[in-house]
Design goal:
- This protein is an alpha/beta fold and 489 residues long.
- It folds into two domains: 121 residues, Sandwich (Immunoglobulin-like), CATH 2.60.40.1180; 358 residues, Glycosidases (TIM Barrel, Alpha-Beta Barrel), CATH 3.20.20.80.
- Helix content is 25%, strand content 28%.
- The chain is built from ten helices and 25 strands.
- It has an eight-stranded parallel β-barrel with strand order 3-4-7-8-9-10-11-12, surrounded by six helices. A seven-stranded antiparallel β-sheet has the order 2-15-19-20-25-22-23, covered by helices on one side. A four-stranded mixed β-sheet has the order 16-1-21-24, with no helix packed on it.
- α3 packs parallel to α5, α8 packs parallel to α9 and α9 packs parallel to α10.
- The protein is globular and about 65 Å long.
- The mean pLDDT is 97.
- The protein binds alpha-L-arabinofuranose.
- The site of alpha-L-arabinofuranose has 9 residues, from loops.
Length: 489
């Protein structure tokens, strides 16, 4: 028997909606043929795919990162503004592709406004310079009578775009990056970029590219960044991708430990540096690229796989475990961007005639739609499993949130058993159940089940009503499932 104990007074942090963020890179069919396909019968007046917009509306993403990714380290943002016919076509060295620049800054901002998401731009800190970076801020946010603010007006955008979130560089710690930087080089460049970008617009929030290479010098990198620019860093951006290359389900389900370790390590580093340098201002974590990605690793955007990963049910469980971790660490993780949105390692998959929703679409949808604004510190106990590296892992992976306005408690549970349902008692302190609620469950016939154009609903989500006593409820979690159990209070 499993037991989940919830105390509404044990609140562990405010959940920032930006943990439900996305990422759009100029890569393969993410932009062209994904979100943007002018001339398609499925496109709206602006060239956005209406079917994709509809699917994205269900995800209700809070923020979208753009334009890369590795792509940004060779990107000239000025190539992507002004009349489309005048925009240059360039080689994209990051991905060995050709970029037409038909989609650029203003198209991206319009896309964000259409899906009601905050835009988050990353500047080129690879082969780009700080002049270019601060010019982009001026173009987007300038309100005065200056050349670049006027250029934006000339392009049809009188009002400033007010882009609040700006990342400086992408994965600068990896030698696959155009303009890879040592820890010293990046800390110094970061400070100078950040300084002038803030001088152009003091209201912007800045993200430093902290870790993507977890086996190298990330401790030193974070120390140097916080030594050099303690007042200029709002978020440390970290990345990871996970997968199941060995086909070992239990090992894959234990990825929760890796996520916990990494977030806790960065939390610890921030605390140490704040103490050592007497930094009083908040510095948050942004997991601004994360997802399952291993099948098409090494593929190219123009090659046969196009980084077009096909997801199965076990991948959906792993995506859900990420959200559980972000909720459990709500106090420090204030942004997270699943990479990417359409076609390229993505929850939505298109062809010229339509789309299907990948398995990982459903956990994103149910977490986003059910998540409250306050994270709760949950105690849970019950059946366990072990792997070569971990003993005694709880089969259920759990988080819980309170929506204090709607007076709703939601318990998110991933049942990591391939075979067994998990009967569970949920007890409540600090409040009472009103008696009614719903279970929203993602599941499919087996852990390898995938969706496709031919079988779009092998994995999907279903809702049913649940009931509860005054302070306790029982529920049986289906094998290999993700469940959002919401109770009125
Ligand atoms: O999202 C795909 C790629 O993964 C991004 O371009 C890069 O930042 C990361 O390595």
């Amino acid at each position: 028997m499993n037991h989940i104990k919830i105390d509404l007074d044990r609140q562990s942090g405010c959940i920032h909606p930006h943990i439900f963020g996305g990422f759009v890179e100029h890569l393969g069919r993410c932009v062209y043929g994904g979100i943007y396909e002018p001339g398609s019968p499925l496109a709206d007046k602006q060239g956005f795919r209406r079917d994709v917009l509809e699917a994205l509306q269900r995800l209700n993403l809070s923020i979208v990162r753009y334009p890369g990714g590795n792509f940004v380290s060779g990107y000239r943002w000025m190539d992507g503004i002004g009349p489309v016919e005048d925009r240059p076509t360039r080689p994209d060295l990051a991905w060995g592709a050709i970029e037409t620049n038909h989609f650029g800054t203003n198209e991206f901002i319009q896309f964000c406004r259409t899906i009601n998401a905050e835009p988050y731009l990353v500047v080129n800190c690879g082969d780009g310079d700080m002049r270019e970076a601060r010019d982009w801020v001026e173009y987007c946010n300038g309100t005065q009578n200056t050349a670049l603010a006027n250029l934006r007006r000339q392009h049809g955008f009188d009002a400033p775009h007010n882009v609040k979130y700006w990342g400086i560089g992408n994965e600068v710690d990896g030698d696959w990056q155009i303009g890879y930087k040592t820890a010293q080089e990046y800390a110094r460049a970061y400070k100078e970029f950040a300084k002038v970008m803030r001088w152009v617009d003091p209201s912007i929030s800045l993200l430093a590219s902290a870790v993507s290479s977890w086996r190298t010098d990330f401790v030193e990198r974070i120390q140097l960044l916080l030594d050099h620019a303690p007042d200029l860093i709002d978020y440390l951006a970290i990345h990871w991708y996970v997968g199941n290359p060995e086909g070992d389900f239990e090992k894959y389900m234990a990825v929760s430990e890796l996520i916990e370790e990494r977030i806790s390590a960065i939390e610890g580093l921030i605390r140490v540096m704040k103490l050592q340098r007497n930094i009083q201002r908040p510095i948050a974590i942004a997991v601004d690229e994360w997802n399952v990605w291993y099948r098409t690793h090494g593929a190219t955007p123009t090659g046969p796989d196009n980084l077009e990963e096909k997801y199965n049910l076990e991948d959906a469980l792993v995506v859900a475990m990420h959200f559980n971790a972000f909720i459990r660490h709500a106090r420090s993780v204030k942004m997270a961007n699943i990479a990417q949105l359409v076609n390229v390692i993505a929850p939505i998959f298109t062809n010229p005639d339509g789309l299907f929703l990948q398995t990982i679409f459903y956990p994103i949808e149910i977490y986003r739609q059910s998540c409250g604004n306050i994270a709760l510190d949950v105690f849970w106990t019950g059946d366990t499993f072990s792997t070569a590296e971990h003993a005694g892992l709880r089969v259920l992976d759990v988080s819980a949130t309170l929506d204090d306005r709607a007076r709703k408690l939601t318990v998110f549970v991933v049942n990591r058993s391939q075979t067994d349902e998990m009967e569970t008692t949920i007890t409540l302190d600090g409040g009472q159940f009103a008696g009614t609620g719903q279970a929203w469950v993602v599941n499919g016939p087996d852990i390898k089940a995938e969706n496709s154009f031919d079988a779009p609903d092998r994995v999907s989500a279903t809702r049913s009503a649940v009931t509860a006593g005054l302070t306790s409820a029982t529920y049986t979690f289906e094998p290999h499932s993700v469940t959002a159990l919401s109770f009125d209070l």
